[in-house]
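Section 5.1 Outputs to date
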Amino acid sequence: MADVMVRLVKACPEDLRDVMLAVQEAFAPAIQETFGRSDYGPVPSDEDVQASFSAPGAAVWHVVQGSTRVGGAVVRIDETGGHNVLDLFFLSPSCHGRGLGLAAWRALEAMYPQTKVWETVTPYFEKRNIHFYVNKCGFHVVEFFSARHRDSDLVVPLCRNGLPLPGMDEYFLFRKVMR
């Protein structure tokens, strides 16, 4: 898997609808597997994805292998402080398990070498994400949010406009301090 090659291509404004649909398609299998149904509507919601796109410092990237878009990322870049946030990161479900996610993450790190700290969140039930961020990318779990410990200033947009699914109010905050 070490020779997996991907590149990041900046998304144009006219691409954003396709990126939003791709994010929702990528998240759908985990929702179906965890909750046994898929009638909750798109997760994350259209409004949450669009809020990520328009957040201060936001950059939207396609992850491309060859000439095929296989995923994407939305990051918020703090040019002065170097404290950056991975809002959304996804691969097409058909591309999982091939090393593309790690290759894409490494490309993001290389794209922003001034980063001092990266942060992201993932719902408690997303075991694949937890494995990926901790075991593959070098993040550390630094906080767990739940009904007993709320995030007053949500780091990334998990569900800004309400909680469409049970358990979406339980998630981990991951942090990676760059060296």
